[in-house]
Design brief:
Helices cover about 35% and strands about 20% of the residues. By secondary structure, the chain is α+β, with helices and mostly antiparallel strands. The strands form 5 sheets. It has a 9-stranded antiparallel sheet with strand order 4-3-2-1-5-6-7-8-9, with helices on both faces. A 6-stranded antiparallel sheet has the order 15-16-18-17-19-22. A hairpin with a 2-residue loop joins strand 2 and strand 3. Helix 6 packs parallel to helix 10, helix 7 packs antiparallel against helix 9 and helix 8 runs antiparallel to helix 9. The protein starts with a helix and ends in a 5-residue tail after the last helix.
């Protein structure tokens, strides 16, 4: 769901409260996101602006974001014109989905001047445009040439043409009245279909339109309604027509909604398309395995070729050239057997060919068994990587990329061969505190799992993993943890696994000393000794309460 004008109005109100703010640094997060690090009266803040076609938004965020080594041209232009400048104000165009940052800066000769950063948050037409005091476009995140839009060209040095205003009523006006014969989205500015449905629901249950708008005006929260396998819906008032909603502070709610959704795009852009590579390898192995199984079935039927050779020699067949098959009596059963022939060979030649094929298929059984086992392991491995990427942050995805490089699946594209190699960083393992105060660590990829299980965990500590699922290794840093800690750790193991959306997920646990490494196995694989089992329903809310990053 995209932002509507009323929600953008709440965002601009909250942003205006921290202005003026001096722009210190500007970073590119992805090809549709920029991050402004600013300093204001209340300290340092980060303003995130996204022109993503689906996740376009604007907010003040406290999260850390990865940045590319080399920023794009638009980011360089923003740095040239905006760094060191002061954001004086932010003004929304009525209740439309675009707003303007007014920024004071000093030009090259030190004279003060005003410059504008226009943020348009209109779905696939979302854009960020830098405009001079003469209302000329300096540059834009998304350039639009004349052949794409002849009425509103977005190119450097073109005149900036604001979006035309909508001829609609102000829903916040004291005298705003609802026309029952027209949809609310056509009557009032800033209304999205979602908000219109909520308003209609409230009106049908006896609430007045004025009361509804006053609730919107007073709101400081974001209400999110989520259902499994459906996109979440959200607004600044409880969505009673949708059902139960969770409430969050406005900007925190946006971070929770979008951070991980857009993170996948960010990972693709910054670390290379790991998803594409892993999916391609997985598809290759899943295509290869049925062929290997079919060849293995054929190889198991190798005895018939030995039989054909024996029959050709037993009956002293000589002349077979030009014939495709011959019928011979089975000396054991007395039945007639059709023996396939090579038209170019005589009897002894065909017999030798039958024996040769028998020997080849017999030896091939061992080779095919090995290849089938390898293919199954590869499928399991890449399915695990895909699950890890689905839950990965940027750092975790980078470690997965390094793992693939180490194992020879990817080439190391690092430039500057003469530069001194940096000391290899150890995989990052996450540690949280359980409600009972016990430290619990978990890994989110194979390298982290290996580091935790074999290098960080002590032998007498408790190890956990979701049974029959790819997922995180979890270690409770205690020998005899209480039940509440065990259940919390089991919740971690279940959530950070393929079973996160299942119920009653089985989680195995044992002491670290009972685990064994599997020779030649991929990272993250262990051999279990004696273990016990606990069943858990994955609970996201419980993890969030303890500060776990979901």
């Amino acid at each position: 769901m995209a932002l509507d004008g009323i929600l953008l109005n709440k965002i601009t109100e909250n942003m205006q409260a921290v202005l003026p703010a001096r722009i210190q640094k500007i970073y590119e997060i992805s090809n549709t996101e920029v991050l402004l690090q600013v300093h204001c009266a209340s300290g340092k803040k980060q303003i995130l602006i996204s022109a993503h076609s689906v996740y376009n938004r604007m907010l003040i965020t406290e999260r850390s974001y990865p940045t590319p080594d080399t920023p794009d041209n638009f980011t360089m232009v923003l740095r040239k014109y905006l760094e060191g400048g002061t954001i004086q104000s932010i003004e929304q165009a009525g209740l439309d989905r675009w707003c303007t940052f007014t920024i004071r800066r000093r030009n090259n000769i030190g004279d003060p001047e005003t410059i504008y950063l226009v943020v348009e948050l209109m779905g696939k037409y979302a854009n960020v445009i830098l405009v001079s005091k003469e209302h000329k476009i300096i540059d834009a995140m998304k350039r639009i040439p004349p052949f794409e839009n002849s009425t509103r060209m977005i190119l450097p040095q073109a005149d900036f043409i604001p979006m035309p205003p909508q001829d609609k009523k102000d829903p916040f006006a004291p005298d705003a009245a609802v026309d029952p014969d027209q949809p609310l989205v056509r009557q009032f500015a800033g209304f999205s279909p979602l908000l219109a449905r909520e308003a209609q629901y409230r009106l049908s249950h006896g609430e007045s339109f004025h009361t509804f708008m006053q609730e919107i005006k007073a709101s400081t929260l974001l209400y999110i309604h989520e259902e499994e396998n459906q996109e979440p819906v959200f607004h600044c008032v409880p969505l009673k027509h949708a059902g139960r909603c969770r409430s969050y502070p406005l900007f925190e709610g946006f971070d929770l909604l979008y951070y991980h959704r857009e993170e996948k795009d960010r990972i693709r852009q910054i670390t290379g398309d790991l998803y594409h590579f892993v999916n391609r390898e997985l598809k290759h192995q899943k295509t290869k395995l049925p062929r290997l199984l079919k060849e293995y079935d054929n190889a198991l039927d190798c005895e018939k070729w030995k039989k054909y050779g024996d029959l050709l020699f037993t009956w002293s067949v000589k002349e077979t050239k030009g014939r495709k098959e011959i019928e011979l009596e089975d000396y054991e059963t007395g039945r007639m057997i059709t023996v396939p022939l090579d038209e170019k060979l005589d009897g002894p030649g065909n017999a030798r060919k039958c024996y040769s094929r028998y020997n080849k298929l017999k030896k091939g059984q061992v080779y095919l068994q090995e290849q089938i086992a390898i293919s199954k392991n590869e499928i399991s491995y890449f399915e695990g990587l895909l699950e890890q990427l689905d839950q990965a942050d940027f750092e975790t995805a980078g470690e997965i990329q390094q793992e693939l490089i180490r194992l020879g699946y990817l080439k190391n594209k690092q430039k500057g061969g003469r530069k001194k190699k940096k000391k290899e960083e150890k995989p990052h393992v996450t540690t949280v505190i359980s409600p009972a105060g016990t430290e619990i660590s978990y890994g989110r990829n194979n390298l982290q799992n290996d580091m935790l299980t074999w290098h960080i965990a002590r032998k007498n500590e408790v190890w956990m993993h979701a049974k029959d699922y790819h997922g995180a290794h979890v270690v409770i840093h205690a020998e005899h943890p209480d039940e509440a800690t065990m259940r919390f750790a089991a919740n971690l193991a279940a959530w950070f696994s393929q079973g996160r959306h299942s119920s009653s997920v089985p989680v195995v646990y044992c002491h670290v000393k009972t685990l064994k490494k599997i020779p030649g196995a991929k990272p993250g694989m262990v051999q279990l000794g004696p273990y016990k089992m606990i069943y858990i329903d994955p609970d996201q809310d419980e993890l969030l309460k303890q500060g776990v990053q979901i």
